[in-house]
Amino acid sequence: MFPHHREREQPIFSTRAHVFQIDPATKRNWIPASKHAVTVSFFYDSNRNVYRIISVGGTKAIINCIVTPSMTFTKTSQKFGQWADSRANTVYGLGFATEQQLHQFSEKFKEVKDAARLAREKSQDKELVNTALSIAAPQDLSDDLQSPPVMCVNGPEDKLFRSQSADITLSSEKERIKKMLSEGSICEMNLEAELFTLQDSNSKLVAALHEANANVEQWKKQLVAYQEETERLREQVADLEAHGGHGPSDLLKDELTQSLEELEALLKAKDEEIHILQSKKSEYHDMERERDQAIHRLREVEMRNSELERRIQNTEQNLGNSLEERDRLDTELQRAIEILDIKIFDLNDLRQSLVKLIDK
């Protein structure tokens, strides 16, 4: 009768690696057991409480090893490791694409070996364990059965079942929107810097204008005082001239004339300063207009940035939905592949059973 225990044998870990076997003649050289990287999986049989390492290359099982507590996986380089199978009288070697894959396989090997040791200690039926350990390596499958394409869990070939076009489209759209948002942010920063400069200049002009207005009031008071002083001096000159015999000397007239000229020059200078302050006041109005325009442009940039942020959120949400859908499909494909691997080994056992029946 065909054994049905492998229906309960489930994969617990898979990776991709190049498989090698030690040369039985020299016990030193490695012989490639596969032309390309193949799937190497740990399987667990809950009925017999047995762990196995299985790998299929083409139509042939190149690794069918039951993990025992005495086995040790040794890392011989950054991407290569090996272990000995005394029951198959050989040494298996695995070459990985990355150091991380080697580390993950080594950790899983230790975990499975510890589990096998605990199972042996708790087992009460030694004969059942010895029978399970006497499983022979399966032979070649028929030419009509081909190994289904396998998917690498940890290796670089896991992208075979993923849609690259969707990733490229979503990534390019996201990068384009990020670029637009970055350009908008730069423009916003420039406008803010320009606005701060205008505000600083505006505050300085306002302070200068207040100071100038205070000075103008003071100068107007001084001007009125100078004008009163000028009129008073002119009246004195007129009185002195009216009293001819008692008039001032030429020296006094020269002094009065000089004072009058100085006052007139001072009045002229003050008029020029007032004119300059009035021109600065017009420049201040121009600065206020430029500031209003900068504020308007800044608001437009903020509105555009808000729109870009909304589009980025929508794109990220769509990307997340696509990634979740892709992960779900990958999980279903992996599950189907693992089931197919088990069925292949079941068919191989069936073939061996039929061959034994025919030989009998």
What key attributes describe this structure?
4 helices; alpha+beta; 61% helix; single chain; 8 strands; 360 residues
Task: Please give the structural blueprint.
Layout: E1 9-22, E2 30-32, E3 38-45, E4 50-57, E5 60-66, E6 74-75, E7 80-85, E8 90-95, H1 99-122, H2 126-133, H3 164-242, H4 250-359
Antiparallel strand pairs: 1-2, 1-3, 1-8, 3-4, 4-5, 6-7, 7-8
Helix pairs in contact: 3-4
Task: Please give a structural write-up.
- With 360 residues, the protein is an alpha+beta fold.
- It has 4 helices and 8 strands, in the order ββββββββαααα.
- It has helices at residues 99-122, 126-133, 164-242, 250-359; strands at residues 9-22, 30-32, 38-45, 50-57, 60-66, 74-75, 80-85, 90-95.
- Strands 1, 2, 3, 4, 5, 6, 7 and 8 form an 8-stranded antiparallel beta sheet that branches.
- A hairpin with a 2-residue loop joins strand 4 (50-57) and strand 5 (60-66).
- It starts with 8 loop residues before the first strand and ends with a helix.
- Mean pLDDT is 77; it is low at 1-6 and 131-163.
H/E order of the elements? EEEEEEEEHHHH
Radius of gyration: 49 Å
Shape: rod-shaped
In total, the number of strands is: 8
Structural class: alpha+beta
Give the overall pLDDT as a whole number.
Answer: 77
Q: Are there runs of 5+ residues with pLDDT below 50, and where?
A: 1-6, 131-163
Largest sheet: 8 strands, antiparallel
